[in-house]
UniProtKB/TrEMBL annotation:
UniProt similarity note: Belongs to the aldehyde dehydrogenase family.
Superkingdom of this protein's organism: Bacteria
Record-annotated active site: 250
Transmembrane segments: none
Protein name in UniProt: Aldehyde dehydrogenase
Record-linked PROSITE patterns: ALDEHYDE_DEHYDR_GLU
Signal found in the keyword field: no
Keyword field: Oxidoreductase
CDD domains documented for this protein: ALDH_AldA-Rv0768
Residue ranges of domain Aldehyde dehydrogenase in the record: 13-474
Length: 484
C-alpha cells in the first residue's frame, strides 16, 4: 500500500482542503494498492491561482526558449534515470504489460520530450513579413494557464505530450491525472521539482469528474488540453465553447487497417499484433477494424488467429505477457457488453469472447476476433477500448475505402500492400488523421490527431506547439532595424 496525503501546488506539497480519497486498484489482483487525495473545488482554485501567479508575475513566460529548454533537458535526463521505476509504476496502476511499459510508458515520454526539445529552436516563435500593404513582426506568445486533463491508458506519455510543448512555449499548467492512474503524476511532479522548474509552473491535482469540470470552466484557465473519450470531449467542448476558451481534444477512434488484394497477409497479421492489441487493446489509435478482400478473408483469419493464439495473457509484471487486464472492473464489463452485442447482432466469433481460464482475480478479457461483421453493427461503429477486433470483407478497392470511412471517427489507420506507392494513394482517400503504410509509424516529428469525432487540433511535431500559443502581429515602420 502506497498512500499520498498531499497535492503538488505552487512548487510545494500541500495538504488538501477536503478529506475525500481516490483508491488506486491493481487491475491484476483487484486489490487497492494506493490512495491519494481527491481534489476539491477549493484545491483546484489553489492550483489555478498558483499557475496564474507563475504566468502573470513569474519569469517562466519571459525566459528565452533556450532557458526553458535547459530545465526540460534536465527533466529528460531524470526520466531516463527513473525509467525502470516508471515502467513498474504504470504497470501496477493500469495493467500495461511490463515489456510494453518499458518502451511505451517509460521510454516513450523521454523520446517525446527529446523530440520537442529538438524541434523548439526551429519553431517560428518570431518572424517578419513584408508586403506592399505593410510590414509586421509575427509573434507566437504563450496562451497562458493550461488545464491538461489526461487519461489512464498512457498517463505519463500523454502528460508529457501536453506539458512539453506548453512549457517550452512559456505556459503554466494544472495537470489533472485520471483517478485510476494518479501515481505516475506524483512521480512526474517530483522530477519537475528536481529539474528546477519554478514554483507554480506545473501543479498536480487528481480529481473526479465533477471537480474536473470546475477546472475546465475555471475563469483563471486560458486553455484546456484534453485526451479521453469522445463523450467526455463533447462535454468539455461545450463548456469551453460557452466561454470561448481555447481547447484541443484528442479523442476516440475506430481505426481501420485495409489489406489490399496484393498484401502479404502473414506480415499484415503480425503487424497487427501491436497495431490492434497494444496495451491490451486500450489505445485509441489501434486498428480495431480490419478490412480484407472477401477472397482472402479466411486466409487472413487463419493468420491473425495464429498471431492472437501466440499472445500470452496474464500477469502484467511477467515479461512474457502480451495481453494484460483491463484497467478496471467497469472497463471489463464495458468490453464484455460489446462482445455480447457482437454475438447478438450476428457476427461470427473466431476466437476469444470470454474470460481466460485461471485468471480469476484480475479484470481480464480474452483477445477476441469477430468475422462477417457488417458496417452497421455496434462492434463496427463504437469504440470498445479492449482487445476486440472486427474483420469486414470487401469486393473492390472503392468498397474497401468506403468501409474504412464509414465511421464517425477518424483518428488512425493502416494500408497493407505490396506496392507502397499504391498504399500512399489509398491512404490519401482515408478520412483520418494518421495512416501507416505497411505498419510504418509516423514518429514524433509528425502531427497526430483526428478528423471528425476523433478530436480538434494536433499534437506532436512542430504543430504540437500551435495549441499553446497565441498569434500577435506587430506593425513595424519600414525603416526599423530589429535586433536579433
Amino acid at each position: 500500500m502506497q498512500d499520498y496525503s498531499t497535492f503538488f501546488i505552487g512548487g510545494r506539497w500541500v495538504e488538501p482542503q477536503g478529506s475525500d480519497l481516490l483508491a488506486v486498484t491493481s487491475p491484476f489482483t483487484g486489490e487497492v494498492i494506493a490512495r491519494v487525495p481527491a481534489a476539491s473545488a477549493a484545491d483546484v482554485d489553489d492550483a489555478v491561482a498558483a499557475a496564474r501567479r507563475a504566468f502573470d508575475l513569474g519569469d517562466w513566460p519571459r525566459r528565452t526558449v533556450d532557458e526553458r529548454a535547459e530545465v526540460l533537458g534536465r527533466l529528460s535526463e531524470l526520466l531516463g534515470k527513473r525509467a525502470d521505476e516508471i515502467a513498474g509504476l504504470v504497470t501496477s496502476e493500469m495493467g500495461c504489460p511490463i515489456t510494453l511499459s518499458r518502451s511505451m510508458q517509460a521510454a516513450g515520454p523521454k523520446v517525446l520530450l527529446d523530440s520537442f526539445l529538438e524541434l523548439a529552436p526551429n519553431y517560428p516563435w518570431r518572424s517578419e513579413r513584408e508586403a506592399v500593404t505593410g510590414r509586421a513582426l509575427v509573434l507566437r506568445e504563450p496562451v497562458g494557464v493550461v488545464a491538461a486533463v489526461v487519461p489512464w491508458n498512457a498517463p505519463l506519455l500523454i502528460s508529457v505530450m501536453k506539458l512539453a510543448p506548453a512549457l517550452l512555449a512559456g505556459c503554466t499548467v494544472v495537470l489533472k491525472p485520471a483517478p485510476e492512474t494518479p501515481l505516475d503524476a506524483y512521480l512526474l511532479a517530483e522530477l519537475l521539482a528536481e529539474a528546477g522548474l519554478p514554483e507554480g509552473v506545473v501543479n498536480v491535482v487528481p480529481a473526479d469528474r465533477e471537480v474536473s469540470e470546475h477546472l475546465v470552466t475555471h475563469p483563471g484557465v486560458d486553455k484546456v488540453a484534453f485526451t479521453g473519450s469522445t463523450a467526455a470531449g463533447r462535454r468539455i467542448a461545450s463548456l469551453c465553447g460557452h466561454d470561448l476558451k481555447r481547447v484541443t481534444l484528442e479523442l476516440g477512434g475506430k481505426s481501420a487497417a485495409v489489406l489490399l488484394d496484393d498484401a502479404d497477409v502473414a506480415a499484415a497479421a503480425e503487424s497487427l499484433r501491436i497495431g490492434s492489441f497494444r496495451n491490451s487493446g486500450q489505445v485509441c489509435s489501434l486498428k480495431t477494424r480490419v478490412v480484407v478482400p472477401r477472397s482472402r478473408q479466411e486466409e487472413f483469419l487463419d493468420a491473425f488467429g495464429a498471431v492472437v493464439a501466440s499472445m500470452p495473457v496474464g500477469d502484467p509484471m511477467d515479461p512474457a505477457t502480451q495481453i494484460g487486464p483491463m484497467v478496471s472492473e467497469r472497463q471489463r464489463a464495458r468490453v464484455e457488453g460489446y462482445i455480447a452485442a457482437g454475438r447478438d447482432q450476428g457476427a461470427r466469433l473466431v476466437t476469444g469472447g470470454g474470460r481466460p481460464a485461471g485468471l480469476h482475480d484480475g479484470f481480464f478479457v480474452e483477445p477476441t476476433i469477430f468475422a462477417d461483421v457488417a458496417t452497421e453493427m455496434t462492434i463496427s461503429q463504437e469504440e470498445i477500448f479492449g482487445p476486440v477486433v472486427s474483420v469486414l470483407a470487401y469486393d473492390d478497392e472503392d468498397q474497401a475505402v468506403a468501409i474504412a470511412n464509414d465511421s464517425t471517427y477518424g483518428l488512425n489507420g493502416s494500408v497493407f500492400t505490396a506496392d507502397p506507392g499504391r498504399g500512399v494513394a489509398v491512404a490519401s482517400r482515408l478520412r483520418t488523421g494518421t495512416v501507416e503504410v505497411n505498419g510504418s509509424p509516423v514518429g514524433f516529428h509528425a502531427p497526430i490527431g483526428g478528423f471528425k469525432s476523433s478530436g480538434i487540433g494536433r499534437e506532436a511535431g512542430p504543430e504540437g506547439f500551435d495549441a499553446y500559443v497565441e498569434l500577435k502581429s506587430v506593425g513595424l515602420p519600414r525603416d526599423l532595424i530589429l535586433s536579433s
